[in-house]
Amino acid sequence: MERNPMRRQLQTMRKSLFDQGYLDDQFVQLEELQDDANPNFVEEVVTLYYRDSGRIILNIEQALERKTFDFNKLDAYMHQFKGSSSSIGAKKVKAESTLFREYCRSRNGEGCMRTFQQLKKEYATLRRKLEAYFQLARQAGPVETACRPK
Amino acid sequence: MAVNGAVTWLRRAEEIDGYDLSASDSEEVHVLAVDDSLVDRKVIERLLKITSCKVTAVDSGRRALQFLGLDEEKEANGFDGLKVDLIITDYCMPGMTGYELLKKVKESSAFREIPVVIMSSENVIARIDRCLEEGAEDFIVKPVKLSDVKRIIDYMTTDFREGEERRRGINKRKLRD
Hints:
The complex is a heterodimer of chains A (150) and B (177). Chain A has 150 residues and is mainly alpha-helical. Chain A is 73% helix and 0% strand. Chain A has helices spanning 5-19, 25-31, 41-63, 71-88, 91-105, 109-140. Chain A starts with a helix and ends in a 10-residue tail after the last helix. In chain B, 44% of the residues lie in helices and 15% in strands. The chains are: A mainly alpha (150), B alpha/beta (177). Chain A binds chain B through residues 26, 29-30, 32-33, 38, 41, 44-45, 48-49, 52-53, 79-80, 82-84, 86-89, and chain B through 37-40, 42-43, 46-47, 50, 92, 121, 142-146.
């Protein structure tokens, strides 16, 4: 039983991210790569993800402003975006990416636009939740182990 | 970080941006990781470091070939501290695909012995077969997990060490106790 109340809150937050389907097992995979020498690895990867994928979101946005859609280009952008999202375990975002790509393949512009709006919502929601999570993690301090890290 | 004799190499290498070089230790497996995704490069780098590999991460097939090309030049001068023992590459990349990189490596007399592992988010049997037929050692479906990397490094380490001993002729140090 976690005695530290902040740590308890952190665990609850974490559990709900998984229970509500925001994150999948790949996030756990990343957590397992953290150690004393790399205690913030997951946060670093997530930060990198939001910085890097923000660029792709912008590209897609611009591409969707055109009169006629270049579905191949849109699909290519989304393939990239989906890949990164998958690598951090962003489950809902990944699902919307898959849907978007299906609409690209069936040349359904309306579907693309609708899905993209939903994707951006999920993307923003996840960002908020993860920022809160990492902030709390930093406040809660390192997990106590038998050998205290320096 | 300069190792004996590596300074010239590093200076030349610094002209190529987009890659990271860990200090060379010829006893460890040196992996060349190729992926156009920044996020995936960061992850694969960490996965490989955890499995005790030295990692050079580049963002394109072209840069990978450049890196190998330099390596060969240095080898000719007797410096092989930065030899690549394994190439792990993404399949879908702009410009040169992982498949094209695989072909180029296998077509080269200097590098065809280097095992190549392909990573892809798409689990397509035809694609996997094509890569294996072209000489890929293994195929990993993304997102990559630690167990995937461990598996590959594990079964490679035995073969690779035996190969290293053969290539070096005389052991500087026993690799196995």
